[in-house]
Batch of 2 targets.
Target 1
Amino acid sequence: MKAAEAMVRCLIEEKVDTVFGYPGSYILSVYEELRKFNLRHILVRQEQAAAHSASGYARISGKTGVCITTSGPGATNLITGIATAYMDSIPLVAITGQVNTSLIGRDVFQEVDITGATESFTKHSYLVKDASEIPRIMKEAFYIASTGRPGPVLIDIPGDVQDREIEFNYPEEIDIRGYKPNIKGHIGQIKKAVKAIEESKRPLIIAGGGVLLSDAQSELMSFVEKTHIPVVHTLMGKGAVLESSPYNLGMIGTHGFPEANRAMNKADLLVFIGARIADRTWGGVADKVLKNVRIIHMDIDPAEIGKNLGTDIPLVGDAKYILSEMLQRVKELDIQPWISELNINDSEKIDKKIRQTKAIDPEYTIRLLSDKLNDDAILVADVGQNQLWAARNFEVKPGRSFLTSGGLGTMGYALPAAAGAKIADSKRQVVAVVGDGGFQMSLYELGTISANNLGIIILLFNNSRLGMVRELQERRYGSITAVTLEKNPDFIKLCEAYDIPGVRAVNNSEVEEAIDKALKAKGPFIIECIVDPGESTL
């Protein structure tokens, strides 16, 4: 069979049922085989969206997302989406066409070294020169993408290689020399961690996105309920622990809850679980805190442990497995003075008063939406002020999902990622929360959403500003520049041109009716909320 057919057969062997992509000259042989096998293909309107959609699909389906593009600009347009998936540890296989092997290195039409360009933000990449290696390469790619710390793998295949004849034998198992992710963790280190926890007077758990990637929410909650240790979470860790739990103090960091950040400052033991511990987690207080605290850092990726803050007890392994082991060994803790100091039982993370503004209160809007959505709803937040309003006010109940670009902070992520999420599970409600800046970075995906009749609610906060940048400028310099979005289009009319209905709300009294209309819609629907240009996230 042709190598292109072999690639599609490999996708089928990996139980892939949907791919996202954009065709072009040097990937046409693969597209012809996609047609023959009737594998579902979602035609995006720009290649970056293929990666974001595949990422959203992966996060909801639990499968590895797949995106396919041609060479040159088709491949380079994937770069931001691949980097976004890498930073957030999302399993992704990106397949790109390449110019014929005899032309590589000659700067011919639509040639680019995409494996070199993406080297620093892929787990691995392949340039396929021997067609007979395709089954092995595809098997390895899916294995690498989905094991250990998940992430993107890129396969670059020249056009002439796609047309070569090979014998197809898909390997049942794969053994990659030098790649052996540690799942179970070292039992000696686990015992040390348990001992440190039992000796601590003011322990605190910091839950990151790794808890969700490991599907360790149940184990974490059991551990918290047994030990009574309070928990805070990172942006990507939202949903790792029940938001209704009295032990959950909320999100930490520069835009986190005061109660959560105070607990970080007062703790004598910090237990990081599946968290990168990036700068925004600490809000610039790391040096002060680290003088009087011990750190346990649990992560599947040994490169992350101690990278930013150091660690006293490293735990390399899968959070689900290690928490299960610790749960069997740890004793119930007597830390009532610590609980009382934090006022855990009386903690109120969110001020639920409706602020009286001339325009719309975004936080009230998110809370109202959260109350009205189903218990298994998916909210996809873009990047900017809208992300923080959503993270602070959307309640992730059991069964709900919160998706965002936390590591790279990619504006324009929400719309295509929401499309991927809806395709992964069409029965669940999906909401894309966007600002007018980020929305215009992926407006083209309205075409994908409309063409596939994806019942997504788009919640647009329109303040005619790059609001987050404006806030930063005002705090640093006392002035603003290049943040006013003049000549914004009429977003409602724009969506109507794509056959997507919507409503505009200009004050708080109109928000509930707008949400109710969106929830009754049979297909995609947009709610445009007019927000004061001076609205702040703090």
Target 2
Amino acid sequence: MVSNTAKASAPPVLLGYQQRWIGIRAPLKVGEKSRRIGLTWAEAADNVLVAAASKAAGGQTVYYLGYNQDMTVEYIQACAMWARAFDYAAGEVEEGIWPDETADKNIKTYTITFPAGHRIVALTSRPSNLRGRQGIVVIDEAAFHADLAALLKAALALLIWGGEVHIISTHDGTDNAFNELIEEIRAGKRKGELFRCTFQEAVDDGLYHRVCLRKGIPWVKDEQHEWVKDVYAFYGDDAEEELDCIPSQGGGTYLSLAILEQRSRIGVPVLRLAYKPGYEVISEPLRLADSLAWCERELAPLLAQLPKDLWSFYGMDFARNRDLSVIVPLVQEQSGRKRPPFLVELRNVPFKQQEQILFYIVSRLPNFMAGANDAGGNGAALAEAAAVEYGHNRISQVKLSEGWYRDNMPGLKADLEDGTLYDLPADRDVIGDLRAFKLVKGVARIPDTRTQEEGGSGKRHGDAGIAIALARFASRMDIELYAYTPVRLTAPATNGFDYDDDPASGWGIRGML
């Protein structure tokens, strides 16, 4: 019996993640994806719309590059289906041969031609070059193409005259050219737009609903859960790479000792303040006086030495008991290079004193621009206090997560490699914290294990490394700069004020003195 669907509303043809992918209009866009979520199917819809449009409307020829014939046939069939669905006049799929420079290499092609003169040309393997071509290049399952780097070089040449390059793939290891391309874009070394969709994200966007619709069966939440479990069980140990967009073979140290030694300098101070257990029971005024004296003695001379024309930022990793709080000021020079003039490490320092020390530093930094606080757990209170003090638009309250590390660690590594970030303290503990970043499921982050501080005075958990990463993140924040100059009146104002913003003699903040 066929169920009655007369009252059912038609769902969107494309699921949310498919819509988001084709909604990205950029010269270069790269999508890392799970297996079998229909991203190429959505790409085919977009390609038909572009190829069917007139030149005046932005129409272009589309070149699809697969690495085998089966996937190419599947793609061109999807394009033909979309052309019919959109009711576009188009020629039949034609088979042909791509004129390649390599001797004895015949690349089979499938072509759909539209009345506007643009075509969709699907190739069954990688051409040796794309010279003389113009349009959109789609590289499907890019991680599995032979010599992807050379193919990218040829494809990106099309961008000069207004073409686009769309790259779609699951992962095939951390050392693959596809993953390296993503890392370059995340690090800001290459311009491009990134897209990511795991299997679970696709399910959350309605993938299983669509499976049920195609099968003609009702959607049941418990059955969806079992279906997802079965899919993950099918992929077994490969599920993280095939379904969760986590490249395999990752597990080593992320930042090499050679690079860190090259970017370190003896003489950059690391100021350490540690209190013994029970210190917090002393009355707060006495404690604040104690830490203020420490600031005046240790921090004031260093802050006074900073040139007044520098821009400054900070990052702070927070801890109260077990680990360290680390504050990393970061100054940016005219050249754009950045360095920490000093680091501050706080162990067993009460909350209010940590706030006092942070504010003491930030209020004296030259041309302070932005800061980033670890806002996880107890750090949320200090992060919020800093945002209230210096502006929510200038203080980022960061919840450290896998996604944050994924987006920001490639940039930190790139800045260290090219010398944009330099003059780190040549301090064994600080270098050890930076070396603590490991590739965990393809993402550079701090593992759960802790290290012993030099001298055995306490445990460390990559604290200085996280603070440096936060400071670098703050230096990349988009903030609005503005200046203020009071205007002097030519004559005393009738309201008793000599300046528009400055009270006349005899007036105070709360009224007449």
